[in-house]
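Hi support team,

I submitted a single chain yesterday and got back a structure, but I'm not sure I'm reading the C-alpha cell output correctly. Could someone confirm the output below corresponds to the sequence I sent? I've pasted both exactly as they appear in my results page.

Thanks,
R.
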Amino acid sequence: MNTMPEVEGEERIGLVPRKRPLTARHVVRYAGLIVLALVFVSPLVFMVLTSFKTRGDAAGFPPSWIPDPFTLEGYRAILTTAGTPVLRWFANSMVAAVSNAALVVGTAALAGYALARMTFRGRNVVFGAIIATLFVPPVILVIPNFLIVNELGWLNTLVAVIVPTAASAFGVFFLRQFFLGIPLELEEAARLDGANAFQIFWRVVLPLSRPALATLALLALLTNWNDFLWPVYVLFSPEVQTLPAGLSTLQSANAVRYDILMAGAVVASVPVLVLFVFLQRYIIEGVSRSGLKG
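Hi R., thanks for writing in. Yes, this is the structure output for that exact sequence:
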C-alpha cells in the first residue's frame, strides 16, 4: 500500500525516469530521420548489390535492385586481371594512408601543444599564419609541390603521396583547441613531480587526448585514401598506383562494366567503413570536446 507514494516521490525527484508519451511531433521527427537515413544508405546498398550482378544485369534499364543471378564475376575480374592489380593498389593506398596519418598526427600534436601551452614571441602570429593557409585552395599548390617532389627524386614513389601533406593546418588547429580544454592543473601537478615539458606532453597530455588524436588520424587517413588528383600527377607506374588513381584506369578500360566498377568501389569503401565503426566513439568525443576555447 505504501509503494505507490514512494514511487511517485522518486519520480518527482528524478530517481525513476518517466516515459514521455509519443506525440505526433515525435512521429514526424522519427519518420524524417528514417527517410534521411534511407537517402544516404540507398546508394551504398545499390553499389554493393550491383557489384554482385552480371554484366548484362548491371547495365540493364530500368535498373534492378536484386542481382539475378547472384555472381562474383565483377570481383573475379578485378582481382585476376593482370593489367589491373587492384590488390596491389589497395596495399599501396593502405601504406600511404596509414603513414600519412601517422605523420599528420605527430606534427600536429607537437605544433598544437606548443601553440596551446608554450609562451614565446610571435605565437599568435604563427598561429594566424597557419590558419590563413586553410583559405588557400589545395589545387594552387599542385605545381609547386610537383616541382619540389621532382627535385627530391620522389616522383613515382609512395613517398610523394605521404610526405607533402604531412603538415596539416587543420590538424594543428584541431589539436590546439583540444589541448586548451585540458585542465592546466594536471600539467602543473606533473611539473611539481619533476616532469619536464616533453614528459608532460607524452605522459599526461597525449593519453588524455586519445579521442582527438583518433579523430584527426581518421580524417587524415580518409583524405589520403580518397585523394585522386595528386597521385595521378606523381605516380606513373601501375605497380605504385594508389586505389583511387588505379580505379580511374579501370573505369576508362571498362566504361560499361558497371559490375566491375561497383566491385572496385566496394573494395575501396570497406576499410573506411570498418575504421569508422571501430573509431566512431572516439570521433564523437573528440569533435564534441574540441573547439570550445579560442
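A quick pointer for reading it: The radius of gyration is 25 Å. Let us know if anything else looks off.

Best,
Support desk
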